[in-house]
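Practice problem: predict the structure.
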Amino acid sequence: MAYRIKNNVYSVGKVDWGLRSFHGGELSTFHGSTYNSYLIKEEKTILIDTVWEPFMGEFLQTLPAETDIKKIDAIVVNHGEIDHSGAMLELMRLIPDVPIYCTPNGVKSLKGHFHKDWNFHPVRTGDTLEIGNGKKLMFIEAAMLHWPDTMFTFLTGDNILFSNDAFGQHIATDKVWADLVDPGILWPEMMKYYANIIAPWGKSVDAKIKEIKGMNLPMEMICTSHGASWRQDIGKVIDTYAAWANAYQENRISIIYDTIWGGTRIMAESIAKGIREVDPDVEIVVLNAGHDDKNEIATQVFRSKAVLFGSPSHNKGILTAIAGIIEELRGFSYKGKKAGVFGCYGWSGEAQKRLAALAREAGYEVVDDGITNLWEPDGKAVEACIAYGRDFVERIKR
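Answer:
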């Protein structure tokens, strides 16, 4: 069922209430998601993006209720990733000659996915498509937000920016608009989306936002590809992305650890106590890499000014859960964060050097050699960890 966005613009996508993981198993989606597709019915009929392939059949059954598919004059593909373009193969069987507007990299992406030489019309920033009734689509390349092929499309007259992955969230909602969604879910999910998908490309985000602001577009709505769209707080949304793109941090310290028999957990909690003793205002988050959701861990690290990584020594190295988290963080390329390391050992004690090396490779400034403990922590070891937590606060100020 379509939802009228504004005038002759309709949302014709799919709500995926049951989605619990995305990008394979790389991203948790506890609140589901949507695959937002948009239909514009002016003198020309334009389809912007489609839906994920599993919902292709439903999409092609419901779309005819809004328009004769054979009367679609053009398709705009803002991003060729399969959750946006999954219905293209079947759709193009029905209308094989319809022009497809996308970036040059979008042509490569769509050919790579579908191995078809469709009627591609590559566009660059500033190119336009007249759609009648005094309106036009203006295309804005947005490479690395978050693929090389990404672009935005701006609809003049109605003043809608179709932003694809930017400014979205993984939330299943049939309410369409962000102002109708619980803000306690909306904003954390928007940050999680940024921290786990968009963050590696912060320089591109910063540059694109400056470019968009410089264009002085009379933007009244932002229609996203996932989750809720924006008809309020447009400036706040854009400024929030700008802040996140520039070495974002809060007064927060994350302690991320894994443990075998609990010793490293005791160290983590004791370090947290020491931090609290000297900085009552800092937010401290203690998370177990072996149990807690890795995307939630990454989001907490994104928010933090510093992070402590903890693992016992195991097989001349560290536990795989904490190693996986650090590898994930390396790819996210968070900037301006400091780090420390800690953990127990029984006989060899390699973990802390390995943790420190991995943290540096991931782009973190490791402020000291960390703290280790032979066997399970006793009272003396707990006090040493508390003292280390106090000292760590001072070191990250330097």
